[in-house]
Design brief:
Distance between the termini: 68 Å
Largest sheet: 10 strands, antiparallel
Oligomer: single chain
Structural class: alpha+beta
Low-confidence stretches: 1-53
Helix content: 10-25%
Bound molecules: (2R,3S,4R,5S)-2-(hydroxymethyl)piperidine-3,4,5-triol
Number of helices: 13
Shape: globular
C-alpha cells in the first residue's frame, strides 16, 4: 500500500517569487503577515492551485552513447534518480521505473526515494547533498522540480534542471553535461537565493548519484610527497567511507581527487562494471560513499564543508565544482580511455596540441647557478634535442636573495647577482642555443623574509593572535583578496609583458594553507577555503585570456595538484618529485588511469642513479618526457644514447600523447609492468615493458598487446637500444600480437624494453 503522504508532499505550483517568500531572520516562516499575503495570492491564483502534478513526461534522460542517467519527477514534484547504468535499449522501459524506495516502508513511514539532490533534514536520513541555514535560522530545505531544458554544448548536451524550495526563495539548478562519444558525464550545481539576509551553506554537494549492486569496491588514491597516487582498495560496507582533504592549496598531497568504483567485484582493468570519477576542484574536496539501509550506494562528491560553512549573500550564485565520471562495463581500461579522450578534447589546456620536451635544472643545480652555467645548460638542451630549457626555483629576489627555500618568495625581480643580465640575458642565451626558454614561479606564496611581506603583511593568510607556523618556511597569500589576485596575475603578466619570448611556466605550490585566517574576509572566515580557490581561478582565467597559448606545468611540491579544473589552465602537471624509475612506474601507472600521458610530466633525473640510464629514460618516455640531471657527467656513449632516445620519442610523440592507452601488466600484480599505446588509426603503437624485481627463475609470460588491428601486419622494432645491441625486429599480425603476445620480459632487475609498432 502507498505510504502515508507527508503534508510537505502536497505542493502548489508557484513561480519563484522572492517577495512572496521573503522571510526575515527574526520571523518564523509562518508569521501572520507573510501568511496573509500568501493566502491572498493563493486565492488570486486559485486556478493554478493544485497538488503539484508531475509533467506528463516526468522522466529526464541524461545519456551518452553507453550510459543512461534517468531522473523522475514524483507526483509531489520532487526529483529522484531512478536509473544510472548501461544505456537502455528501449527507453519506453524507463516508464516502469519507480522512484520510491523498494523496502522499509510499511505505510507509516514517510515516502522516500533516491532524491537527485537531497537536502538535509528531510525524510531522507542519509548524507545530504545540500545543507542550508536559511536567513531565519531554519535548517530545512525541500526542493521541488520547476523546469528543465537541454542545450547543445561543445561535444554533447547539457541538461539543466531547476529546483526550488516551496517556502524559501532558494533555487538550485542541477547541471549534467553529457558527452556521448566519450561516455563522460560532468555534474555540478548552482545554488542561489533571494532571502532577506545571507544564508549559510553547510553542505554544497556537486551532485548526488546512486548505484545498485550486490557489493561495492572502492579504489582511492592516497600519498604524500614523493609517493603520490598509491591505490588502496576496499569493500564498502553499510555506512560511510570518505575521501577528502583539508590542505587548502597543496590539496591533493595526501588524498587525490579521483577514484575507481567496482560494482560486484574489485575494479579490474579489462572486465567488470566500474566507474571512474574525479572532482574538478583545486582545493578541499570530499567524496562520500554511503551504503544505506536498502543496500544502495550513494556517492556524494563536492567541496569539503570542513571549516567552510559558506555565507552566501542574496542574489549571489554558488557554483559547485564539477564532478566528472565515466561508467564502463568492460573495466577500468575502457573508462580510462574515454576519460582521456574527453580530457584532450574538452578540458585539458591545449588538449589536442603538442607538448614541449625540456631540460630542467632543479635536480642538477638546485639554487646554485649563474647566467654562465645556465647558458651551458641551454646548449646541452640543444645537444640533447629537446625543445626548451626550464629554469627552476632560485632566480629571483635581491634584498633577501632566493639562495635557499627560506627567503625571497614574493619578490619576483631577477636576482642581479646570479643573473646580472636579467631574463633578457636568459632568453637571449636560449635563442643563441636554439631552444625555447621557460621559467618557474610560485606566485601564491610568500616567505616572511621578503620585501613583499614587509610591504604587505596584510596580504598573508596567518593568525592575528597565535604563533605562526610555517610549511617549507613559507606562507600562503590571501587570494580571497582582489589586490592579492592582481599581484599574482602580475607575476606572470610582468614577465610576459617584458619578455614575450618566455615560452613556458612551471607554476609551483609548495605549502598547504597553514594558520587559517584571512585578513580580507573579516567575519566570514568560513568562506576562506572556497574563496581562495575562486581567487586562484580568477587569476588563471585572466592569464588564459591574455596569454592563451603559453604552456604551463602545474606543480605542487610534486603532484599535490592534479585536478581537472586546474588542468583547464595547464597543459601538464608534475606527477611527483620522486623520479626513481622503480617508484615512478607505480605512480605513472595510477595516474595514467585518469589523465592523458601528454599531461603527465615525467623527467629523467639522477634519483636512484644506480639504475641504468636506459631504464630511467624508458620510464619517463611513458609520459611527457623531460630531463633534469647533470648531463655534463654523461659518458660519450650515454650522450649518444640520450640523443637517440629523444629523437625517437619526438617521432613517437603523436602516438604517446594522443593514442589509446592499454595497461597490460600491473606492477601491483607482478614483478613487471607493461603498457601499450595505439594511435586512433591503429597504424602505430608503442609498447613499454619494465622489469622491476623479477623473482628467481620466474616463468616469464608473453606480453599480449591490446587495441591493434587484428587483420594487419605490424613491423615490431625494439627501440632505445644501447649501441652494439640488437633488439627484436619482426613482423607479426595484430591478431598474433594480441592473442599470443611477445616474449619480451626479462629476468633482470631494473631493465626495460620499448618497441615501436608500425602497420604495413
Ligand atoms: C617543488 C617541485 O616539485 C620541484 O620540482 C622544484 O620545482 C622545487 N619545488 C623548487 O623549489
Amino acid at each position: 500500500s502507498f505510504p502515508t503522504r507527508r503534508s510537505s508532499d502536497l505542493r502548489c505550483v508557484f513561480c519563484f517569487s522572492p517577495r512572496v517568500f521573503q522571510v526575515s531572520p527574526t520571523k518564523t516562516r509562518f508569521n501572520p503577515r507573510s501568511m496573509k499575503k500568501l493566502l491572498l495570492l493563493l486565492l488570486l491564483c486559485c486556478g493554478w492551485m493544485t497538488q503539484r502534478a508531475a509533467p506528463a513526461d516526468s522522466l529526464i534522460r541524461i545519456s551518452t552513447d553507453e550510459t543512461d542517467l534517468v531522473l523522475k519527477i514524483s507526483p509531489a514534484g520532487r526529483l529522484y534518480q531512478v536509473y544510472l547504468g548501461e544505456k537502455l535499449r528501449h527507453f519506453e522501459d524507463a516508464r516502469r521505473l519507480n522512484w520510491q524506495v523498494r523496502t522499509g516502508s510499511d505505510g507509516s513511514y514517510p515516502v522516500r526515494g533516491f532524491e537527485a539532490y537531497a537536502a538535509g533534514e528531510t525524510e531522507d536520513f542519509f548524507e545530504p547533498a545540500l545543507g542550508v541555514t536559511h536567513a531565519d535560522g531554519n535548517k530545512t530545505t525541500y526542493l521541488y522540480y520547476q523546469n528543465h531544458r537541454q542545450q547543445p554544448i561543445d561535444g554533447g548536451t547539457e541538461t539543466l534542471i531547476t529546483l526550488r524550495d516551496d517556502r524559501y526563495p532558494l533555487q538550485v539548478v542541477l547541471h549534467y553535461a553529457a558527452y556521448p562519444k566519450e561516455n563522460v558525464i560532468k555534474a555540478w550545481s548552482e545554488i542561489t537565493h533571494t532571502e532577506s539576509q545571507p544564508i549559510v551553506l553547510n553542505r554544497m554537494g556537486s551532485a548526488m548519484l546512486y548505484f545498485d549492486a550486490a557489493r561495492y569496491f572502492l579504489t582511492n588514491y592516497h600519498g604524500d610527497w614523493a609517493k603520490e597516487a598509491q591505490p588502496a582498495t576496499q569493500q564498502l560496507q553499510f555506512g560511510k567511507k570518505v575521501i577528502d582533504t583539508h590542505l587548502g592549496t597543496r590539496a591533493a598531497m595526501q588524498s587525490q581527487p579521483f577514484f575507481e568504483l567496482g560494482f560486484d567485484a574489485e575494479p579490474r582493468e579489462n572486465e567488470g562494471r566500474v566507474l571512474l570519477g574525479t572532482m574538478a576542484w583545486t582545493g578541499n574536496f570530499r567524496c562520500t560513499f554511503e551504503i544505506d539501509n536498502t543496500g544502495v550506494l550513494r556517492l556524494l562528491p563536492g567541496i569539503n564543508p570542513y571549516a567552510s560553512a559558506y555565507t552566501l549573500a542574496p542574489d549571489s550564485v554558488f557554483v559547485t565544482p564539477q564532478f566528472i565520471f565515466s561508467l564502463s562495463r568492460s573495466g577500468v581500461g575502457t573508462a580510462s580511455r574515454h576519460l582521456q579522450d574527453w580530457a584532450r578534447r574538452y578540458q585539458l589546456k591545449d588538449g589536442m596540441g603538442d607538448r614541449l620536451t625540456l631540460l630542467n635544472n632543479w635536480e642538477n643545480t638546485g639554487f646554485d647557478f649563474n647566467g654562465k652555467k645556465l647558458a651551458t645548460l641551454m646548449r646541452e638542451a640543444k645537444q640533447l634535442g629537446v625543445d626548451l630549457f626550464l629554469l627552476d626555483d632560485g632566480w629571483f629576489a635581491n634584498k633577501y636573495p632566493r639562495n635557499d627555500d627560506r627567503a625571497g618568495l614574493g619578490d619576483w625581480a631577477v636576482n642581479r647577482q646570479k643573473l646580472p643580465e636579467g631574463i633578457a640575458g636568459l632568453t637571449r642565451d636560449a635563442k643563441r642555443a636554439g631552444v625555447k626558454f621557460g621559467i618557474w614561479i610560485e606566485p601564491e606564496m610568500i616567505n616572511p623574509k621578503s620585501e613583499l611581506f614587509e610591504r604587505h603583511p596584510d596580504w598573508v593568510i596567518r593568525q592575528p593572535n597565535r604563533e605562526t607556523y610555517y610549511y617549507r618556511h613559507q606562507l600562503v597569500l590571501d587570494l580571497a583578496n582582489p589586490a592579492v589576485q592582481d599581484h599574482v596575475f602580475g607575476v606572470v603578466d610582468s614577465i610576459l609583458t617584458h619578455h614575450p619570448e618566455v615560452a613556458y611556466f612551471k607554476w609551483d605550490c609548495n605549502s598547504p594553507i597553514t594558520n587559517v585566517y584571512s585578513p580580507s574576509l573579516g567575519e566570514h572566515q568560513d568562506n576562506l577555503y572556497v574563496d581562495y580557490v575562486r581567487g586562484l581561478y580568477k587569476v588563471l582565467q585572466r592569464i588564459a585570456k591574455k596569454y592563451p597559448r603559453v604552456p604551463m606545468m602545474l606543480c605542487s611540491g610534486g603532484g599535490a595538484r592534479c585536478d581537472y579544473e586546474a588542468l583547464r589552465y595547464f597543459t601538464e602537471f608534475w606527477c611527483s618529485d620522486d623520479t626513481d624509475p622503480y617508484e615512478r612506474i607505480y605512480i605513472q601507472w595510477s595516474l595514467s588511469k585518469f589523465f592523458p600521458l601528454k599531461a603527465m610530466a615525467s623527467h629523467v633525473t639522477d634519483w636512484n642513479k644506480k639504475t641504468d640510464l636506459k631504464f630511467r629514460i624508458d620510464v619517463a618516455s611513458m609520459g611527457k618526457l623531460g630531463f633534469d640531471m647533470d648531463l655534463s657527467q654523461l659518458s660519450e656513449a650515454d650522450w649518444r644514447f640520450c640523443r637517440k632516445a629523444v629523437a625517437r620519442y619526438r617521432e613517437l610523440k603523436p602516438v604517446i600523447f594522443d593514442g589509446d592507452v592499454y595497461r597490460l601488466l600491473s606492477p601491483y600484480e607482478s614483478q613487471h609492468a607493461a603498457v601499450n599505446v595505439v594511435d586512433k588509426a591503429r597504424n602505430r603503437a608503442v609498447l613499454f615493458t619494465y622489469n622491476l624485481h623479477p623473482r628467481y627463475a620466474e616463468n616469464l609470460r608473453p606480453v599480449r598487446l591490446q587495441g591493434l588491428d587484428p587483420d594487419r601486419q605490424y613491423l615490431v622494432e625494439e627501440i632505445n637500444l644501447r649501441s652494439g645491441t640488437r633488439g627484436l625486429n619482426t613482423t607479426l599480425s595484430g591478431d598474433y600480437l594480441m592473442k599470443v603476445g611477445l616474449q619480451v620480459l626479462r629476468p633482470d632487475e631494473g631493465t626495460s624494453r620499448v618497441f615501436s609498432l608500425t602497420a604495413r
